[in-house]
Amino acid sequence: MVNTARFKPQQAMWVSTTRYISYDDRHGFQQSREIICTDLTFRKTAGISTGDYIEDGGKLYPISRENQEALIAALVRLRNPEMLLIYIIALTTGMRIQSILNLRFHCIRQDVGSQEDENRNALYAITIGGLTNVGAKGGKEQNVLMPAWLHYRLTIYLNSQRYKDRAMKSPISNIYDQYLFLTRTGNPYYVAEEDSELFGYSNERGSAIRQFAARILQELVKANQAFKYQFHDLRATFGMNLIEDNMKLIDKGDMSQPQLLDLVRRRLNHSSVDVSMRYLRFRSDHPLVANAQSEFESHLEGVITTEMRRHEGIRS
Q1: Number of folded domains that form the chain
Q2: Which is deepest, 87, 115, 182, 187, by most CB within 10 Å?
Q3: What does 102-129 look like in DSSP terms, one character per residue?
Q4: Tens digit of pLDDT for each residue in 189-225?
Q5: What is the secondary structure of 24-52 as a DSSP string?
Q6: Is residue 214 one of the residues assigned to a domain?
Q7: Terminus-to-terminus CA distance in the chain, angstroms?
Q8: Is 27 domain-assigned?
Q9: 3-state DSSP call for residue 79?
Q10: What is residue 62's DSSP assignment?
């Protein structure tokens, strides 16, 4: 419009500058070319979801109930208590891998969740991020809720000889600041930034979890139950299980959709309810992704109880 003299703005539409860029021509010789740049900026728009995934800090693909059960069964067969507990924490809290692997001894309530506890299904908060020594996305302080029965099972693990042997090899002397999950050499699976020097300036960021995932896939293939997943998908899986469990309350009129959205936002620590809304939209498109979380948690508790007893029996 300016070139055809139909439009004559009173202010400059942009500021132009001349720059030179270097490139190799088809003969391999370096050349330079003059280009005109402006101060115009264009906001990059987010990709539109196809409905096959949930956008929550990345593209997350909730795992179906059938595949969740196959995944847990594969973990049981592989007989690695740490990995089994790590996966179950993810499925019952929605925590990200950094936070799970940064959990410390002091995070676990040692006085709740036993068979005699009437409130063994109650939820107890774990504070992560902020000034704590448990990492969280963006470093912001947030509370994550964990079932009392899982606190109890983790307490049993923390008092096992297996854990004590590993903790003895760790340079952390204060047991309350000790990592919940340690390798056989006493190193954490994910070294917090403040502990880098203590562990020889290690930049370990959960590589063992990714390596073990390959073993899980092999186990799934053996059972003809193979499916693709990433550990971060467990977060979306927890969110969908949570929604599915509480949809019963909505159907009965005991909970409204805004209340369910707020519940999802708080449990997953979403900064915006818009992110939580993506879970409800996904659920409407994929109604058979999950059943009741409470029923599944009962199954998970049974798995942990059996495996921990079996493992301690082997040691004795």
Answers
A1: 1
A2: 87
A3: H-BGGGS-SSS--TT-TTTT-EEEEEES
A4: 999 999 999 999 999 999 999 999 999 999 999 999 9
A5: E-TTS-EEEEEEEEES---PPPPPPP-SS
A6: yes
A7: 85
A8: no
A9: coil
A10: P
